[in-house]
Design goal:
Elements (H helix, E strand, L loop, with lengths): L1 H15 L4 H13 L4 H13 L5 H13 L3 H14 L4 H13 L3 H14 L4 H13 L3 H14 L4 H13 L3 H14 L7 H10 L3 H13 L21 H10 L11
Length: 262
Amino acid sequence: KVMPMGKAAALKALELDPDLAQAHVSLGVAKLVYDFDWAGAEACFRRAMEMNLTDEVGYYWYALLLVGASRFDEARAVCVAGRQINPLTPILTHTEGLIDYYARQYDRAIEACRELRETIPHYMPALLITGLSQIGRGDYDGAIDTLTHGVPLSGRAGAMLAALGYAYAQVGDRARARAMLDELMDETRQTYVQPSYVAVVLANLGERERALEYLQKAYDERHGFLIFLNVEPAFDPLRGDPRFAGVVSRLGLMPAQVSSFV
């Protein structure tokens, strides 16, 4: 309901002032996570940067687009450019860790988040990326410790519950993985829980049919996490299924390509 309103507001802002860089960013976000219009979103982000964007959030969103398109080196270059505006911003530091996680360079991802975890112990993105990267490198006990610590700090956020369920599933602790899934499902009766998070746990419990149902639901509801569908290791159990490939195709994910930004 709200994303079309936000998109309309961004368009109105640009009608009033075509040189408003932040409005180009807002329109780009709507094009990326609601329309799945990758080329249109990238054009918005690049236009904002050409206007000497002074808000690191625009660089953050452009980096996320590039990550989803498997353009990891370009994403790192965008983070470097954004950090020149605000060297102390945590958002681009954790994004660098996210890039390494999705590039499956797990040790680098953990190291990228180490300082954030030391200086801002309650910073959920750093905890989440660290825990997921520990899963990726096979340190399941470490991942479970990290994510168990992060769950209450995050207010039992859906992303953290799903990650912990994913970790339990990887070590074969189906009872605890299912407990995380049950909590996510209980939350759907009280508040909105992104279907992609439910799909992560189902996929790693081997419940392929239900996982694909929830991925389709995520697509229908325009859950922005889907922009990472091509690169998210947690969805590896579904790769090769033509229905999974169908969702990827409908997302319009771009192939890797060279950009002049680097």
